[in-house]
Amino acid sequence: MKAWVIQENGAWVVQGADHDIVAQGHDREDAIQVWRLCVCGTMELNKRVGREPLVTYPPAPAFYWRILGEPEEIDINGALPERARIQR
88: number of CA atoms within 13 Å, CB side? Predict the structure, then answer.
């Protein structure tokens, strides 16, 4: 999934591009890990209630694309415990 990873006011923030999901952490890797968990948790909850995995989250607002440019690709399964990985 694509997201922007930025440092803002002393915290690291990950803003999802494909889906408007945001997380923050103490450092870059912490923020990415928290974001991964948020994305995977949302996918799992939607799956349990019979919805498409991220149907409830639209893409990030257009102004993020204008201000932040091209987002980076983040593997949502990277560094997650096996039990938290998304099964496709």
Answer: 3
Terminal-residue alpha carbon distance, the chain:
14
Q: Give the separation between CA 86 and CA 88, rounded to whole angstroms.
A: 6
Q: How far apart are CA 26 and CA 30, in angstroms?
A: 6
- Give residue 55's pLDDT: 87
CA atoms in the 13 A half-sphere facing the CB of 11: 9
Delineate the domains of the chain, giving CATH numbers in brackets.
Answer: 2-84 (3.30.160)
* pTM metric for this prediction: 0.84
Q: Are residues 33 and 40 in contact, defined by beta-carbon separation less than 8 angstroms?
A: no
Q: Helices marked H in 10-82 — which ranges?
A: 28-48, 62-68
- Whole-Å CA distances, 28 to 5, 9, 72, 76, 85: 7, 13, 13, 15, 20
